[in-house]
Write a structure and sequence with these properties.
The protein is about 10% helix and about 35% strand. The protein is mainly β. A 5-stranded antiparallel sheet has the order 5-1-9-4-6. Strands 2-8 form a two-stranded antiparallel sheet. The protein has a two-stranded antiparallel ribbon with strand order 3-7.
Amino acid sequence: LDDYRCFILDPGITEDTTITAVQVLPDKVAEVHHVIVFKPNSDEAQAKAEAKAGADGRPGYTCFGSAGVPSSIVGLWAPGASPVEHRDADTGQLLGIPMEKGRKLILQVHY
């Protein structure tokens, strides 16, 4: 199977915050090639992703190569990968990706 599906995740963010690390723990590692976690760049992009979800009668929506809406990558996973921390390449200081109140995430799974 070579299927790319995106799923909307609601982390329940109730105030502006920062993402400093991402860890993906798939239940069926043998079925998942990789995962990319995206953050929609705007309310409009989030609404477009939500409108796509389930439109083809299946959970999520087809999304080869990207989230299918303007977005930024916040994390990646492939078999054997460790949790991803966002750090400055020169100083090693822990950095973060701004996450606005009410913002959802898009999880792209490549099966």
